[in-house]
């Protein structure tokens, strides 16, 4: 019964109608209480995305009628971040890409890891929260930390107990509001991560009439605004044979669904081959995905899908049997030259059409929709040879310094997340020039 109800419940929860209703209620409460439009900003001193976000907050404050409340945090839930060492190394490199894209300050090398230094600078941030120019002081402290300067903020008469209590207050608030990560903005029930999600906040603020500009604009959309907007050189130069695009993909990952849709568009636009390497979902590899993380990903995928014109929300989770049946038929689909088409049909079915792939009825719809033979497919469902290549695909991904899906590779360029497809596109253009 649960498997029947959940897709319909997911469609309701992710609907634009419900979102607009929640926003209207939030705005009514705010207006009735006479409160300003408050952005709660949660920052961690050694989080590179927090550093970049902090640098653009003066611009947001200038362009919108909002009140910023900066909140430093220190402790995070380790269960939310598998492969923390790999994540830390990758995040620094990834943040450098964003810093270059938006012309922000960022060091060439990460600060040395030192827990005592982290605590010291976090304490400085906590004290700065009550200073006369919070934003300026936060930026100064972050600059000092990230560029290894040892100028310290004046402690004044603030006691250690006060610092400790205020830090605990911030971390409690982050958890109470339903999140687990730094570099986050919370506004009226919704979360916006780093620079990557600021455009969603900009659109919301513009719709509320909060822009101070005569012509409200969207500024933080550089990662995708020019996607597939460069003339495909392959159509004019027959001698160019660009390297293929490889996608590491999980049929259960909502972001993989977006990544596959966008990768198909990119490959078609530049006339290059797309190779998809499926891997097992994290949960089926023994890695935990806590509820708070699942809900954030669900809602974030919905708004990202809307941005790209991709259907999402009528979700029939394929975890378990649905994943295994999907992968059991992938070799068959590949042998028919329909591997990508099959995965695309499967991803749309379980993410946007509410089709329960663990049932024969649902799976038959998926198989036949991409021109495969159901009787042949049904005879192959018991096979498990796919586990060998799924494990090898995972190893290949780890060898690139990546651990999560979707991940993309083109020649020597490898990135994690559908947000970074622009990096791959830039490499493709360079390769074809």
TrEMBL record:
InterPro entries referenced in this protein's UniProt entry, alphabetically: DSBA-like_thioredoxin_dom, GST_Kappa/NadH, Thioredoxin-like_sf
SUPFAM superfamilies: Thioredoxin-like (SSF52833)
Domain DSBA-like thioredoxin: 246-428
Top-level taxon in the UniProt lineage: Bacteria
Record protein name field: DsbA family protein
Species for this entry: Alkalimarinus alittae
Source species taxonomy: Bacteria, Pseudomonadati, Pseudomonadota, Gammaproteobacteria, Alteromonadales
């Amino acid at each position: 019964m649960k498997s029947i109800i959940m897709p319909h419940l997911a469609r309701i929860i992710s609907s634009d109608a419900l979102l607009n209703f929640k926003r209207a209620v939030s705005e009514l409460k705010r207006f009735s209480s006479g409160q300003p439009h408050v952005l709660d900003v949660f920052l961690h001193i050694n989080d590179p995305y927090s550093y970049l976000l902090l640098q653009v907050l003066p611009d947001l404050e200038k362009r919108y009628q909002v009140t910023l409340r900066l909140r430093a945090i220190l402790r995070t839930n380790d269960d939310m971040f598998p492969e923390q060492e790999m994540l830390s190394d990758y995040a620094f490199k990834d943040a450098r890409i964003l810093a270059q894209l938006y012309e922000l300050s960022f060091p060439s090398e990460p600060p040395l890891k030192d827990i005592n230094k982290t605590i010291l600078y976090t304490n400085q941030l906590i004290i700065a929260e009550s200073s006369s120019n919070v934003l300026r002081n936060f930026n100064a402290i972050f600059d000092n930390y990230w560029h290894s300067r040892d100028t310290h903020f004046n402690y004044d008469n603030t006691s250690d107990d006060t610092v400790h209590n205020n830090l605990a207050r911030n971390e409690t608030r982050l958890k109470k509001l339903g999140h687990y990560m730094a570099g986050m903005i919370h506004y009226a029930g919704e979360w916006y991560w780093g620079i990557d999600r600021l455009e969603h906040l900009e659109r919301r603020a513009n719709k509320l009439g909060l822009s101070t500009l005569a012509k409200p604009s969207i500024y933080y959309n550089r990662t995708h605004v020019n996607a597939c907007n460069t003339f495909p050189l392959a159509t004019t130069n027959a001698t160019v044979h660009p390297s293929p695009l490889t996608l590491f993909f999980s049929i259960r990952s909502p972001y993989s669904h977006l990544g596959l849709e966008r990768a198909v568009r990119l490959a078609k636009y530049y006339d290059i081959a797309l190779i998809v390497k499926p891997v097992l979902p994290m949960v089926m590899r023994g890695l935990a995905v806590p509820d708070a993380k699942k809900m954030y990903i669900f809602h974030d995928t919905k708004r990202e899908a809307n941005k790209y014109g991709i259907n999402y929300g009528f979700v029939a989770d394929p975890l378990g049997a649905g994943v295994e049946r999907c992968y059991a038929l992938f070799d068959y689909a590949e042998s028919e030259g329909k591997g990508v088409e099959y995965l695309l049909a499967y991803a749309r079915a379980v993410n946007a059409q509410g089709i329960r792939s663990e049932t024969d009825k649902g799976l038959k719809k998926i198989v036949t929709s991409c021109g495969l033979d159901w009787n042949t497919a049904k005879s192959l469902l018991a096979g498990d040879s796919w586990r060998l290549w799924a494990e090898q695909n995972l190893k290949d991904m780890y060898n690139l310094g990546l651990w999560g899906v979707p991940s993309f590779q083109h020649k020597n360029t490898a990135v994690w997340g559908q947000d970074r497809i622009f990096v791959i596109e830039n490499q493709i253009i360079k390769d074809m020039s």
